[in-house]
Amino acid sequence: MAIWLNASLSYIVFPFHSPLEPSENFREILQNVAKPHGVSNMRKLGHLNNFIKLLCSIGHREENFGFTYEEIIICLRLALLNEAKEVRAAGLRALRYLIRDTSVLQKVLRLQVDYLIARCIDIQQSNEGERTQALRLVRKIITVNAMLFPTSIANSLIAVGTDGLQERDRMVRAAIAIVCELALKNPEVVAKRGGLSTILKSVIDCQLSRINEALITTILHLLNHPRTRQYVRVDVELEQILAPFTDFHYRHNADTAEGQLKEDREARFLSSRMAIVAAFRSWSGIINLCKAGNSGIQSLIGLLCIPNMEVRKGLLEVLYEIFRLPVPIVTQDFTEALLSVDPARFQDTWRLSDGFVAAEAKVILPHRARSRPDLMDNYLAFVLSAFISSGLLEGLVEVVTSSDDQLAVRATILLGDLLHMANTILPHSHSHHLHCLPTLINMAASFDIPQEKRLRASAAVNNLKRFHEKKKKGLKPHSLYLDHIIRKSVSSHNRRDSRVHKDIYVIKDTEEALMMNLRDSQILNHKQNLEWNWLLIATILKWPNVNLRNNKDEQMHKFVRRLLYFYKPSSKLYAGLALDHLKARQLTVVGCQFVEFLMDSDEDGQGYLEDLVKDMVSWLSSSSGMKPERCLQSNGLLTTLSQHYFLFLGTLSAHPQGVKLLEKCGLFQCLLNLCSVKNQDAVLKLAVSTLDYSRDGLARVILSKILTASTDTCRLYATKHLRVLLRAGVEFFSSWGMELLVTQLHDHNKAVSMEALDILDEACEDKANLHALIQLKPAVSHLGDKGLLLLLRFLSIPKGFSYLNERGYVSKQLDKWQKEYNLKYVDQIEEQLNEALTTYRKPVDGDNYVRRSNQRLQRPNVYLPVHLYGQLVHDKTGCHLLEAQSVVPDLSYTIRSPMLDTWEGIKQLKAALWALGNIGSSNWGLNLLQEENVIPDILALAQHCEVLSVRGTCVYVLGVITKTKQGCEVLKQFGWDAVRHSRRTLWPVTPDEVDTQLTSELSSVPSTLSLNSESTSSRHNSESESQPNMYILDDDKCDVLDQSDETSLYLHSKPVKDRSPFTILASTRFVRTRFLNSLSLPSKKLRSTSDPKTPSGSRTPTELKTGSMRRNRTVTEPSVYIRTAGCPEHSYRGGWT
């Protein structure tokens, strides 16, 4: 086709810049195109191409044509009947340029050109160019006015989409994509022609996750709105995606050969799995698959009880993906399978050449957010509750006890994960599912069942116990680098040397025992270094009250000299070993202990230590860019233990005398010189990751230099490492780390500045860091909306509010948020949720191209973005400001009079919901909501709104409102239960009763807070200091209940005092019935658990306790909280829009 076009450009009738009038040019073109004889196809092709050029040059003004649109269309219509496919393609292209508005399109359809377009689509005779132009023209029709889309073309597209695969039609995916686009804009024409069935059939045909998700999401979008929901037969069409699992004799195509049935079935399982997971990422999918009666979710869970191993295996994979859990490897060994899903297992991105320590820490160390809601927890809580109420855990117990070992191991891990998740994010009123464990134990102890089943049950109980122990220990760093950072940050809060405490121990026969260990270690009389007893060597180095200062024995000095020679880079013994050597970790740990041993020896060890450090500095200088012909990368830094020398240097940098020695030996000057040398990324990464920054000194100078003077890669890594230091709790980070981050905001590389902005947002979860940031007065206007959100954080404390208010910033922002930013906030949240739940990836650097990934993120967090109103309500002055501008009444009007007919109206409603939710996140703001009495209206929308995605927004909003004790009390009056515990509490305890005295103490806390109070303290309004509700014990009373073992020190650098609640909302009025029994679509009348006659705020906590609804209370450690919103049992289940 390209050859024809090129030829036609050289064989045109007249030049493009013709001296003739446009009308005369049009006449000549149309005459030649319409002539049945006497004009060759090549000349017609040239004329059609020139028609487009002329049209683009003079515009679409009909008076310039010299012809009416009807006359032009009649002439161009003849081109679609030409025997040459190239001419037909050019005619289609000319029509596409001609159609600019609805009036022209109506003329085209009135002249029945659509039948000729459909003919071009139907013909399949090596005419892909023609068909491509036809599909482009079809998309142009949809763009101009989809409501006028002709059924003739719809029939052709649907026919291609339905049977194209069997006919090996290469246009089948393009046709289905257009049908999906048309279904969104004109669902009636697609539904009446059977297009929705074609889309669903294509879902099972497609094994590409991105396309599969797009197809099923089209159907889910139609189910979301009542106007389009009527076109989808839910019970018939939507549940087609379950057929490969639910129909054991399923055959997608009747003509599939017998030999290909197994392969075809595996392909359908994969397609169905993708579609089911995508459906559970959507409100409309969850509500329709979890409705009362014979729902899709019950069909799936029922299959677990049928001994079909193939189906069980597929369903377990579906469940793992729905709950964002990593799938274990296929093995019969439970320990091996458990290790394969350990988040702390080594990942390729943790290598020195990739993300290194910064990537590992982002997985291992918890986010600093304490009271900030994680919307993903809301979503997972609803989905989990839906599955549990449908009998998922009982089904898993059946799989565990009646499947082969490989499936049983997978099911056991899934069961443990779900029990842990349920105990973490579900309220006690929905935790009765834990009774599945007594069932499992009874099976393990019963002799009335087959022996094989009893043994499997017994093994599962033991494996769950091991799973529990692993969860209880928490995450441990994999690399020695991150372990080094965490240990140093923990010990920095207690600087006294631990050896001082060991000196109090008196060990009998110390000298004799020490000499015996020296002898048994074989270090004194054996030259094979790797055959030394390194366990005994480590014991000697940690021996209480033993160092060179106290032991002048020659054997001890010989012991030290042997170790020194082994570790010196010049000897190439330790440095030459591979990173994956079996003893690599042990040798490095002993090396760090050796360095500390020499430091403890004072003057006696100074000479040995100085010798070692000088040798390391010499190795670093000679092997790096100091000599252009050599570099560390080619010298084995990426593959040998030589990179661990930086751990030795980092150990020294954590001690004052070690810093002096490093400075004396020239290490810091060497690193400063390397900052300006190219190809030293690995060296600088190692230096950044191992130096100790808890003291002001040269280490911070090195870090600052790398942050500003190195290559883009190093600057980005050093910036990411600041997040590691923040999460590890390095001492006094607010006094120096915040300043470094603010400097990075002005980096010329956008990736660096945006990373710094993201870290600052996380750092501001700590009030000390927020105060430090306000003091620095950063300029963030060049960072766009994200910079604006960071600045809004200032408003949450009086100091920041005064700073911005004095500059007139607050009033300007109030105007902007009322006009546009409230709507932008909806886009921001939904984009984050979409990116977390689907293959969608937001565009980069303003590019309009939407990136997509074949893999979903593993359990991502979606922390609630900063909202202007949510920050203002943390202070009494900000609340008065909102009150004066009548913000809450205006938003409440939008809630009470929603415009659900248009997407703009729905977006306005969501914006109002998010705004009110953020206002209700503090006690000050909650009083404004109560005065307006808008909470019952939000609850009504959550239960009955016909637009299902609005229900989801209500769920998240209710979760935000329950951040405070007062918010929980208000919602309890409407039958919504709440439970709170720490985000980091691995196994929260939920006893039935709480100490009576504690209950009476908490009952005395006032449930309302007047804006007219004289106190301006924000203690009751701060996210991180909100009062716990009556189910939470005080911190000091909970300490004995949540003692963490030694490993938890890796994750908790210091005790965190935080009273913000983790909240889940759920109905308690129908605990005995299943969570979704009365769930239905809005077309059915729903019973509400709300009581509109109950006045807001009229009941005290004591009255609630003694009322008709019995409350189960949670006793946990209130340190860092997540919050999840739930719903009355008949309303809905949640996901995203």
From TrEMBL:
GO-annotated molecular function: protein serine/threonine kinase activator activity
InterPro entries: ARM-like, ARM-type_fold, Pianissimo_fam, Pianissimo_N, Rictor_IV, RICTOR_M, RICTOR_phospho, RICTOR_V
Domain Rapamycin-insensitive companion of mTOR N-terminal: from-to ranges: 45-427
Domain (Rapamycin-insensitive companion of mTOR middle): residue spans on this chain: 509-728
Domain Rapamycin-insensitive companion of mTOR, first and last residues per copy: 906-978
Cellular component terms per the entry's GO annotation: TORC2 complex
Highest taxon in the source lineage: Eukaryota
Biological-process GO terms, alphabetical: positive regulation of phosphatidylinositol 3-kinase/protein kinase B signal transduction; TORC2 signaling
Gene3D superfamilies in UniProt: Leucine-rich Repeat Variant
Region (Disordered): 1005-1029, 1083-1109
Compositional bias annotation for Low complexity: 1007-1019
SUPFAM superfamilies found in the cross-reference section: ARM repeat
Segments crossing the lipid bilayer: none
Polar residues compositional bias, start-end: 1089-1105
Family annotation (PANTHER family): CYTOSOLIC REGULATOR PIANISSIMO, RAPAMYCIN-INSENSITIVE COMPANION OF MTOR
Family as reported in the entry's similarity comment: Belongs to the RICTOR family.
Protein's name according to its UniProt entry: RPTOR independent companion of MTOR, complex 2 a
Organism: Astatotilapia calliptera (Eastern happy)
